[in-house]
Write a structure and sequence with these properties.
This is 2-polyprenyl-6-methoxyphenol hydroxylase. The chain is of the alpha/beta class and about 400 residues long. It has 15 helices and 18 strands. The chain is globular and about 60 Å long. The structure holds flavin-adenine dinucleotide (FAD).
Length: about 400
């Protein structure tokens, strides 16, 4: 089978690894528009469950990813002069996005995948001799946009502005900082992804963004201003930017992509091209890798191709559905942040951890907090099966 993957992100690269690893006779090429070693963003988080699934599908990639990752098991919070540490925040892992792509590319090449860098594919007709074209070309997928009506693409644009930054401070935990300015609240979360670097994602409402002058400021000035605002969290360490050619910071509004169908003939969508989930749940890379695994498994079960692609879409879509729901609630929680900022910090923190659940958005915050605490105090008396049911996200 001749397979073309458009996009050398996690989805395209991991899919190529799994196909070539199991069936070396396949002819697999990944086309990536950027040069090798250049990508956007800083580090990404993932959980232990991703490591477990990677181990099941390609143990060599799983080991390499774990070896290059940083682990934490505590969450820390800053809000003005108040701080709080949550030792039960949970375990997490971070890895540099570039490092992840380098590892996947190395593994893919080792298995015989061709990676054509600096090769942008504008139209799948350029790949007419391929039996299968995988569109792993990210949230702004050109492959998908050309057939947006067929795919039934919907793109929702978030209200808040965000910027994806790095920091020269290597945190030893997952850190949140919520700060009030004369123009409203602005917040940041950060986590380490290497021994000397962390990711910091900063977000605020559009009024705050304009009020603080970020719509006009050059990146260098933006970073200085943000370093002052988040001084407690950064402890004197600089923020690092990835500004554009004009020297402006890359503020964006998050785009939630969904599609009615993920396939058209021999063209199939995977990863962000098929779906995006708000960055505040840190799941996009995990879902892209999961799509890759499900697509490879569906194809390896055998032809005909349309049946395999339908199988893939069915399985991957159901995995994505609940993540997109949680992501929607999570982004709403942040868009309504002032609803929670009058609460004592521990109460606000608890509600932030429940933000993927619908009830948090409908109950008055204090009532929600005390209801949760009352339930938590009696949970020991509830039979285990009922507890599992109660723990399911509310849809
Ligand atoms: C601020 C922020 C923070 C995030 N944090 C996390 C996190 O902590 N954890 C997590 O799991 N996820 C996170 N994500 C999401 C994650 O980055 C994406 O979900 C993930 O990268 C999707 O992988 P992908 O392979 O589908 O697409 P991408 O990683 O976007 O890769 C697509 C590739 O295709 C290439 N390409 C595009 N068009 C073409 C073309 N026409 N021809 C050839 N090549 C092309 C691009 O250059 C790119 O290399 C975050 C996202 C944002 C915005």
């Amino acid at each position: 089978m001749k397979i073309a993957c458009v996009g050398g992100g996690p989805a395209g690269l991991y899919f190529s690894i799994l196909m070539k690893g199991v069936a070396p006779s396949h002819d697999v090429t990944v086309y990536e528009r950027n040069p090798a070693g250049s990508t956007y963003g800083w580090g990404v988080t993932y959980s232990e469950s991703l490591l477990r699934s990677l181990h099941a599908t390609d143990p060599e990639s799983a080991r390499a990813i774990l070896d290059s990752s940083v682990r934490w098991d505590r969450w820390d919070y800053f809000r003005g002069p108040r701080t709080m540490s949550d030792p039960e925040g949970g375990e997490g892992f971070g890895i540099g996005r570039q490092r992840l792509l380098d590892l996947l590319a190395e593994r893919a090449r080792g298995l015989g995948v061709r990676i054509a860098y600096e090769r942008e594919i504008a139209d799948e007709r350029e790949l007419a001799d391929a039996d299968l074209v995988v569109a792993g070309d990210g949230a702004g997928s050109r492959m998908r946009e050309r057939h947006a009506v067929h795919f039934g693409t919907e793109v929702g644009v978030g209200r808040n502005s965000y910027v994806w930054l790095g920091s020269a401070r290597a945190f030893d935990s997952f850190v949140f900082s919520f700060e009030e300015t004369e123009h409203g609240w602005i917040w940041c979360y950060g986590y380490p992804y290497s021994p000397d670097r962390s990711t910091c994602v900063v977000e605020c409402a559009p009024e705050t963004w304009k009020g603080l002058g970020f719509d006009r400021a050059r990146e260098a000035d933006t970073l200085v201003r943000l370093e002052k605002i988040f001084a407690g969290m950064l402890d004197g360490h600089p923020l690092l930017g990835q500004g554009d050619a004009q020297g402006s910071a890359r503020w964006l509004n998050f785009r939630t992509v969904s599609n009615r169908t993920w396939r058209r003939g021999n063209l199939v969508l995977a990863g962000d091209a098929a779906h995006t989930t708000h960055y505040s749940i840190g799941a996009g890379t995990t879902l892209a890798l999961r799509d890759a695994a499900l697509l490879a498994a569906a194809l390896l079960q055998g032809p005909p191709l349309p049946v395999a692609l339908a199988r893939y879409e069915r399985q991957a879509r159901s995995a994505v559905r609940s993540a997109q729901r949680s992501a929607r609630y999570s982004s709403q929680w942040y868009e309504n942040l002032p609803r929670y900022t009058d609460l004592p910090l521990p109460q606000m923190v608890l509600l932030s951890k429940l933000r993927g659940y619908r009830l948090v958005h409908h109950l008055p915050p204090k009532l929600c907090y005390f209801t949760h605490q009352a339930a938590a105090n009696t949970v020991g008396r509830i039979p285990r099966a009922m507890r599992r049911k109660a723990a399911r996200p509310i849809s």
